[in-house]
Amino acid sequence: MSATVKRPCTAAEQAGLDPERIPAHVAIIMDGNGRWARAQGKDRLSGHWQGYRTLKNIVYAADELGVRYLTVYGFSSENWRRPQEEVGGLMHLMLQAMRAEIEELIQNRVRVRVLGRLHELPPDLRREFEEAMRRTQNFDRLTFNLAINYGGRAEVVDAVRLLARKLQRGEITPNDIDEAAVAAHLYAPDIPDPDLLIRTAGELRLSNFLLWETAYSEIYVTPVCWPDFSRQHLIAALADYQRRTRKFGAVVE
Ligand code: FPP
């Protein structure tokens, strides 16, 4: 008698998704912490702390559903313009969060990377991030990219500066500077471009996030504020993505 061995259903299948068409790279603009806090009668930092709890859920949900790379906008190069108390509170939150989460991230073989001008961050936070990157560098599950002190234009400027130095040293000629050369000097050149960009809290803009990398990303905007964004909302975004036809500038019949 031959028994049919059934493959256990993946989390993606259980969620009604096609496991073969899960976007490899999902990027998220986590917006609406302040609005969420105001609606609750709380201060803005409470919104950011609730946003951290959401982020933790979404990291593990994304990994479980088969996403390979998750990139989130944690702190933009423009966020320094916020009141000093909020900026300080966010730096403190990131330090506490990194310290609290690192062992669980390691247990789950999540690779942490931090993208942005790290040298401008407070030294203790920079050390914590560098330590997290070092300790998780060989992991093969989800790669979790935190964009911190990140700006899309600054990233392109930094890439151009690296190329200019190579040109000055005579290592390259102007004709070597093409799209592939610029892409190779961005903060995470080995990571594929985002397939799906999610923005919470309803605004229809990119806010200087991954400007180069999102050239052909599918964009999904939800009115839900980040602190309320759940695994179910992530599944809804992935389902919407799976209903789309990607064209990359070509004609698709
Ligand atoms: C945008 O909401 C959110 C931020 C500027 C910060 C994002 C930070 C977190 C989600 C906390 C966890 C982060 C890490 C890296 C552990 P907003 O303040 O602009 O909201 P508003 O537009 O409603 O005012």
Number of domains: 1
Q: Number of helix segments?
A: 8
Report the CATH superfamily. Answer: Decaprenyl diphosphate synthase-like
Number of strands: 6
Overview of this protein structure:
This protein has 253 residues and is of the alpha/beta class. It has a single domain, classed as Undecaprenyl pyrophosphate synthetase (3-Layer(aba) Sandwich), CATH 3.40.1180. Helices cover 42% and strands 13% of the residues. It has eight helices and six strands, in the order αβααβαβαβααββα. The chain has helices spanning 11-14, 33-39, 44-65, 84-107, 123-136, 152-168, 179-183, 231-242, and strands spanning 25-29, 69-76, 111-115, 143-150, 196-199, 218-221. Strands 3-4-2-1-5-6 form a six-stranded parallel beta sheet, with helices on both faces. It is globular. The chain starts with 10 loop residues before the first helix and ends in an 11-residue tail after the last helix. 33% of the residues are buried. The mean pLDDT is 96. Bound molecules: farnesyl diphosphate (FPP). Farnesyl diphosphate binds at residues 30-35, 48, 51-52, 55, 74, 79, 93-94, 97, 146, 201, 226.
Question: Which key terms come to mind for this protein?
Answer:
single chain, 253 residues, alpha/beta, Undecaprenyl pyrophosphate synthetase, 6-stranded parallel sheet, 6 strands, binds farnesyl diphosphate
Secondary-structure map with pairings?
Blueprint: H1 11-14, E1 25-29, H2 33-39, H3 44-65, E2 69-76, H4 84-107, E3 111-115, H5 123-136, E4 143-150, H6 152-168, H7 179-183, E5 196-199, E6 218-221, H8 231-242
Parallel strand pairs: 1-2, 1-5, 2-4, 3-4, 5-6
Helix pairs in contact: 2-3, 3-4, 4-5
The site of farnesyl diphosphate has 18 residues, from helix 2, helix 3 and helix 4.
